[in-house]
Design brief:
Blueprint (H helix, E strand, L loop, with lengths): L8 E3 L6 E2 L3 E4 L4 E4 L3 H5 L4 H8 L5 E6 L4 E12 L10 E5 L2 E6 L5 E5 L6 E4 L4 E5 L7 E6 L5 E9 L3 E2 L8 E6 L1 H4 L10 H9 L2 E6 L8 H9 L4 E5 L2 H5 L5 H18 L5 E4 L14 E3 L1 H5 L5 E3 L13 H16 L5 E4 L7 H6 L10 H15 L12
């Protein structure tokens, strides 16, 4: 069978073809999308945050074209946890005019091998992989390629069989969200079904997701990134990571929250701002952190976490999720007296006791794909409906 060769057009990957990234770094292979700006990255010394912000949760290539075939060369960095089951490859999802049109994974790539028992990590270089979507219609269409939320992804080359151009601004509201690994994506089925991505789709808004796995720690440079990013709607989900790493005590927590919100308000004085407390996490409701891998479970090939603190330590100011929720509710109520566009949402309205009984957290910290879907649908109903904090009141 004779196949006609495709006359490929290579298009440089530039910021006007990307959404959801705050910076684009040139590398030896191509470009690397970042979800924190360079100045914030220069002030960070934590490898976990460096890894998380370089994983492109919510980042997508967006362009208009008549192409019937699209190829994307990428260099992913895949994670391997010693003793734990192999992680599935990251998923790329194709949308055509807003509708699902394909998905796939890239072979090759670098490998980061992590020892949870010691915290050490080793890196091995690998080859560039190619992802291909074919059989598309030849009419003019808007194409989106959502990048894997959980793999650092260098973009090497974009090839199509017809020219591409940036998609004009559609006038949709921009929703800027910050949170932990649950907002980052944890174990969602793909990049368009993390709970923020799903909620954004249901709410008809453009998402910028600053969910940073293990790293929602009230860092001032993250607050400044939120401050300096244009947005029409903002939400900040905070709490679980502060317990995970046992970062601070109650005395420091309240001023840190005020300072974080003050910084965001410096750039967005009247933007609707929603503070979301932690979803239910039974191991940390009343037991402080830090969290640690359950080595007994790990020896049996299961990844689970446990709380290592003592509930009695709450008396000395150690944080639990219950303590954090009470304090966040108090802080928002206090500030809302002078800030009518500040709102509070108890995270247990997204995932609570009944949900935990039906859909328990598989590793005791992170929701699975079904729970992400439930959380996204609930957030959309709570935030974007007529009486919600993110309701369109422009009419």
């Amino acid at each position: 069978m004779h196949t006609t060769p495709i006359d490929w057009i290579t298009t440089p990957i530039t910021p006007d073809l990307l959404r959801g990234a705050l910076d684009l770094e040139r590398t030896a292979h191509g470009v690397l999308p970042h979800r924190l700006p360079a100045r914030a990255r220069s002030q960070n010394t934590d490898p976990q945050l460096a890894m998380a912000e370089s994983q492109p949760s919510g980042v997508r290539l967006v362009f208009r074209t008549r192409a019937t075939a699209v190829e994307l060369d990428t260099l992913p960095t895949k994670r391997v946890y010693i003793g734990a089951p192999p992680r599935p490859d990251g998923v790329y999802e194709l949308l055509v005019d807003g509708r699902p049109a394909g998905r796939g994974s890239a072979t090759g790539g670098n490998t980061l091998t992590i020892d949870l028992a010691t915290g050490s990590a080793t890196r091995q270089s690998g080859p560039v992989g190619t992802l291909r979507f074919a059989g598309l219609s030849d009419d003019a269409k808007d194409v989106e390629i959502w990048l894997p939320y959980n793999e650092t992804t260098e973009l090497v080359a974009l090839r199509t069989d017809a020219p591409v151009e940036p998609v004009p601004d559609q006038g949709r509201a921009v929703w800027l969200h910050h949170g932990s690994s649950i907002s980052h994506g944890s174990d969602a089925a793909g990049p368009t079904s993390t709970w923020p991505a799903l909620a954004a789709s249901l709410g008809g808004v453009e998402l910028i997701n600053l969910g940073l796995a293990g790293s929602a720690l009230l860092d001032p440079f993250t607050a400044r990134a939120l401050r300096d990013t244009p947005a029409d709607l903002i939400s900040v989900k905070m709490g679980i990571n502060l317990v995970n790493v046992d970062l601070m005590r109650l005395r420091a927590f309240a001023p840190a929250v005020h300072g974080f919100l003050d910084t965001v308000r410096d750039g967005h004085p009247t933007t609707p701002l929603l503070v979301v407390s932690p979803v239910l996490c039974p191991i940390h409701e009343d037991t402080p952190g830090p969290s640690a891998p359950d080595l007994t479970a790990l020896s049996a090939g299961q990844l689970r976490f446990r709380a290592t603190g003592d509930p009695a330590e709450r008396a000395s100011g150690k944080l639990t999720l219950g303590v954090i929720r009470d304090e966040l509710a108090r802080i928002v109520e206090q500030r809302a007296a002078e800030d009518p566009n500040l709102y509070y949402l108890d995270g247990r309205e997204l995932y609570g006791e009944a949900d935990s009984a039906e859909l328990p957290l598989p590793d005791r910290l992170h929701p699975d794909a079904a729970t992400h879907r439930r959380m996204g649908e609930r957030f959309a109903k709570l935030a974007f409906t007529a009486d919600g904090p993110f309701a369109d009141r422009s009419a």
